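Bug #77: duplicate submission created two jobs. Keeping one. Sequence:
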Amino acid sequence: MTAETKEIVPVFNDNGEFDIKATYFKFLEEDPDITMPVAAIESLVALLSTTETSTSSELMKVLGDATTRLKKSVQNSISLSAGCDLFTRFVLRNINEYGEWETCKKHLIQNGRLFVQRAMESRDKIARNGLPFIRDDDVILVHSQSRTVTALLLHAASQLIRFRVFVTESRTSKNGVEMARTLRAHGIPTSLIADATVGYVMQKVDKIFVGAEGVAESGGVINESGTYQIGVLAEATNKPFYVVAESISFSHKFVRLFPLSPSDIPNEHSLDFTLEDKDDELSTLPAVDFTPHQYITALITDIGVLTTNSVSEELIKIWFG
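Kept job's structure:
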């Protein structure tokens, strides 16, 4: 499975202006395998290819306005923000290398598309790097749905490794239902479980794999709600807890945040106490939580298996190297 560079098809509004939000959601709609940060980067590349600017400062203003609109368009924008910030950093580092403006702009567009292609290919590298962690007769627990975890498990199955998987439904999104359906369609024995039964099945589990909306500077992981409690239970029962996150070499899932607890993660929803019953009460639960680094055994990435202490070092290389 090799990623191919797709033709950038921008979306314009009724006034003929480039619509960054509509373009972003179009990428997500047309490619179910694309991640939020990669879709954001693709949208920004499309912006560069359709916007007429005469100076670097003008381009940076256009880029800044677009990223602000993108970040406001999505409730859980942590990974999207990381992609926007990384691409902006990429532009800043390259914008002064060319004396002639049109050549500079062409270079940014071409390399931006290459940037996206390599980010997409990183999932295959993760699957290969994570393969040694899955053995015959393993019982694996995964939380909700994750493209990187799916790629890893499907790769292991293609190598004729026999294992079984517990998948949590993830009550806030029910994305686990789709994850279980995907694994079963590829011949992997799967049991879909309620979030509340994680403690019950933990003794039957050999290891846990989760994806990430973002990996913080501390090495902790921001992911769909319920990940934190799984991490705590994993430590209590001495089960390996692996985070599978793509593209550390592009850092689009490694975010410049340093939360100390789950309450430090920005959420659109709050937990309110009330005397009234609400039909949609559970829909207001926070979409993500934060699992501190001490609960994480290792991070499986496209450049190898890392300890949580390595995250800040990689971010320093990206941002200040």
